[in-house]
Amino acid sequence: MSNYDVIVVGAGNGGLAAAAVTTKAGLKTLLLEKHNLPGGCATSFRRGRFEFEPSLHELCGVGTKEKPDNIYKLFDSVGAEVDWRYEDTMYRTIVRGENGYDATLKAYREPFYDSIEAVVPGCREKVKTFIELNDKCDAALDYVAKKNGNPNPIVMVLKHADFMRCASHSTEEVLNALEMPEKAKNILTTYWGYLGVPTDELNCLHFLSMLTSYMDNGAAMPHLRSHELSLSLCDVIIKNGGEIRYNSEVTEFLFNDDGTVAGVIANGEKLYAKEVISNVIADNVFARSDAKKIPERDVKLANARTFGMSVATIYLGLDATPEELGIKDYTVFVANDGNARAQDDNRLDYGFYIVNCLNKVIPDASPEGTCQMFFTMPLYGSDIPKDIKPEDYKKYKNDLAEKYIRDYEQLMGINIMEHIEEISIATPVTFARYLGSPEGTIYGYRTSGWDNVIMRNQSQVKDNGIKNLRFCGGHGIMGDGYSSAYTTGAEAGHRVVNKLKGGK
Ligand SMILES: Cc1cc2nc3c(=O)[nH]c(=O)nc-3n(C[C@H](O)[C@H](O)[C@H](O)COP(=O)(O)OP(=O)(O)OC[C@H]3O[C@@H](n4cnc5c(N)ncnc54)[C@H](O)[C@@H]3O)c2cc1C
Fold first, then answer.
1. Hey, what CATH class is 2-84+223-306+438-501 in?
2. Of 108, 162, 189, 410, which is least packed with CB atoms within 10 Å of its CB?
3. 480-504 per-position pLDDT tens digit
């Protein structure tokens, strides 16, 4: 029988951040990962001479050494070293059709306003008002935090009126209230796919905080891609005396008679700890637990939630440089309609896809004379045809890849097909198998309606119904994405440290 202060289940971004914090604080920590390498989504795989980035387009909330933001500070605080690279173009967005556009949006506020004004003359002030709402909401949230979540309602109304006006509204509602021109609205909401929820359903503060985070810091990327992030956190964990066990799937969560979590079983071994942090989504934890031990409220909460979006991806190793191929951009969003809801509704018919060429940010991301491209198509697990037979799955994937590659070739007037040296295609099935997530969700639970991030934050204490068990990751209170997963992981780690060692 082994005893630990903390067992962390899953070495995705959330689990790695949690274990880095607990080991750094001197807690005896065991990190269990079902695969033979860390990272979950933040990993790498090889085909031929190419090492592919499986997930990271760009990371928000990083900042620089001189002006560090949350993620920079988080890595720095645990002693994890990362060689960050930055991109000063946020995105290029191409919408076809009569009311279409081709806009390239620059990072940092003034260049961003300039670039949207160039496409929609006269929208600058409205866009500025929208973006600055984020600063007002940040000030309101700072005040709420200072008051330990019990702000004076009169101060909220008098000093933070804009926060009160928009906090419970969707992005679309706020943009409509500002009378944002349709085209500017569509260009502004391009990033909805990064949160997997169309903006008529997506909380405005959630969307704004992501958008401004990319805008204010520039999109960041580690030189050796997401694998560098995962390995840097593993280094911290090991250096600080933590233990990482790979090939160790947790098959059961163990409970004491009083309903508190006691530990887990991995590879048939019972492992005990004072605290367990799960980077694994609650549905899967409950499926690996004695049903009688899960409070009714927690079961109801999990059942009431909707799983978030998944994606299909095409990873391409090309035998020519971006310059030879005529590829000019790092991130291009392509759609048939500028409206986020229409893009989601038409996702099976070229509704919306994203194309990245990693070498535009990291020139040596592939061997000399080559480049790697990465297509991402938002898709739900339920979009996979129900009647597909195993023997037809390969054809399904190949058809999907051909459809999107051909479309992009035609749109951009470039030749990709003839230059494919390596190709790998993933669908929600791939993500369900690799991550173990229900329906292949890469975004945890859909951050929508009553389950938006504001509501999650407000009710987090009540939601934590199982004693000695905490959750972190893209399915956590901050929603999906690298930075949210790291932040919730670090927060879970700090809460455990405070509980076991005392502190604030
Ligand atoms: C194609 C793609 C593109 C993306 N692009 C971006 C982007 O550009 N920017 C961004 O911010 N986000 C992006 N995301 C989303 C982001 O990757 C995720 O939100 C985030 O990485 C989720 O982190 P997580 O901590 O929840 O862990 P996950 O990555 O879900 O990892 C969970 C870990 O737990 C392990 N595990 C599962 N079950 C068990 C078990 N029973 N026992 C032990 N281990 C277990 C898994 O093997 C895995 O390692 C993208 C995701 C994908 C797939």
1. alpha beta
2. 410
3. 999 999 999 999 999 999 999 986 6
